[in-house]
Write a structure and sequence with these properties.
The protein is of the alpha+beta class and about 190 residues long. It folds into 2 domains: about 40 residues; about 130 residues, OB fold (Dihydrolipoamide Acetyltransferase, E2P) (Beta Barrel). Helix content is about 25%, strand content about 25%. The relative contact order is 0.12. The structure holds zinc ion (ZN). Zinc ion binds next to loops.
Length: about 190
């Protein structure tokens, strides 16, 4: 008696659930596909990179820039860095694989810089791809970090990815990339399928 009823339910309930939920599952799948197809809800890593542009100025601690402007603020702002353009605009820098160095390394701040990067629509942050500073002679130098033992570049302060030894800030005389003067999409053409 006890085994008959549960056995009956075990057969019916899963079938009922399956048929009842199938349309919902299919609808969810269709909605998901639509989302991917339109690109509006695509994963962040699949977003196209906006055209690369040149940003000039000096990178500053936002707290210092606010103090200069007489704007009261609280300590939570203390780590934010921003590019201060010649016009006095502050563009916050995203701490990502390349922008992070400006948070870590005060040697990169309060000096003339040229940054190749981009801003995404709807976000205030500058996402940096290349960093140029200027030496005492005013010559433009591509700026990154370097391990003399392993001869590999790095883009933030950390032990060498290879030998775990110290790395140094490196300056190499170099012109700005040519693609900055080209059509915006030219630089990405080879990366697109
Ligand atoms: Zn190394």
């Amino acid at each position: 008696m006890m085994s008959g009823l549960p056995s009956h339910l075990n057969q019916v309930v899963p079938m009922y659930c399956f048929t009842a939920w199938l349309p919902a599952c299919v609808m969810t799948a269709i909605l998901s596909l639509n989302g991917i197809a339109t690109g509006d809800d695509a994963a962040p890593e699949s977003l196209p990179t906006p055209p690369k542009k040149l940003f000039q100025g000096k990178v500053v601690l936002v707290t210092e820039a606010l103090e200069e402007r007489g704007i009261k603020h609280y300590p939570e702002m203390k780590d934010q860095v921003a590019l201060e353009t010649p016009d006095g605009e502050l563009i916050p820098i995203l701490s990502d694989w390349r922008g992070r160095a400006f948070y870590q390394d005060e040697r990169l701040r309060n000096r003339k810089v040229e940054l190749v990067g981009f801003r995404r629509e709807g976000l205030p942050y500058l996402q940096i791809l290349m960093v140029f500073t200027f030496n005492d002679e005013g010559e433009r130098t591509y700026t990154d970090y370097w391990c003399d033992i392993c001869s590999i570049p790095m883009y933030e302060i950390k032990p060498c990815e290879c030998c775990q030894g110290p790395i140094r800030l490196r300056f190499q005389k170099q012109d700005l990339p040519d693609y900055l003067d080209d059509a915006p999409s030219a630089g990405d053409a080879t990366e697109s399928p």
